[in-house]
Amino acid sequence: MEMETHSKRRQSSQEDLLDDDRSLGCCGWTLVILAGILAILPPFCLISVFCCFKIVKEYERAVIFRLGRIVDKKPKGPGIFVILPCTDSMVKVDLRTVSFDIPPQEILTKDSVTVCVDGVVYFRVSDPIKSVANVSNADFATRLLAQTTLRNMLGTKNLAEVLSDRETIAHGMQSTLDDATDQWGIKVERVEIKDVKLPLQLQRAMAAEAEATREARAKVIAAEGEMNASRALKEASLVIAESPSALQLRYLQTLSTIAAEKNSTIVFPLPMDMMSQFMRK
Description:
The chain is α+β, with helices and mostly antiparallel strands and 281 residues long. The chain is built from ten helices and eight strands. It has three domains: 33-94, no CATH class; 98-198, Tetrahydropterin Synthase, Chain A; 204-271. The protein is 56% helix and 21% strand. The strands form three sheets. Strands 3-2-5 form a three-stranded antiparallel beta sheet. Strands 6-7-8 form a three-stranded antiparallel beta sheet.
């Protein structure tokens, strides 16, 4: 709560500075009038055409400083506009989305595992006046803040969370960066965790653990298969025991299967039920 109150006070103070008395005073207006007269004098007309008329593109905005003060409360552009020579200066701000890579960071996780993590951040300028007046280099400041935020965010996570919850970590980083860079006029649109590199020994240990888990699962599956097969054989034996003819048919089927595999002469006894008919005759 104290940090939020402090940030709100800081933002209000910065807005007060921007909304402060913008009157240039007598000396300032005198210089502005002289600059305007100088711009329309015949010897300087051609030069003033190149110096006074400025063009900004659709994806750009211009922040105009007149005698050190920002002109109006909003930036100029896109299109063409006029500035006064000698008294006005212009700073162009690009509004397009910019991406940069977070260099690989050696991070110690919550469970004391050292990992190397890198990422990528996408951001854009949402308020050109704040990006010029509140920070000296918004791009460089955002890059440094992204590196420290990545280290602080992953320092509170376990290794399993770092490997499985990348999307949650990315959303948390985006929210933190967006809140911190709001006073700079920067909007963080997206954060992605690119790669997590583990130490070689830890990779081997994780591979051995995964292999042991797969072997144990294979043994369990094989045991379940044998149990199901034994149950099926028991049910089949009960069915065959109820019908002696079924046993004979199964016996004949087995003999035909053997005869199909190998060409040989097979001698097998006939069932006694079949021979009894001939014996009676």
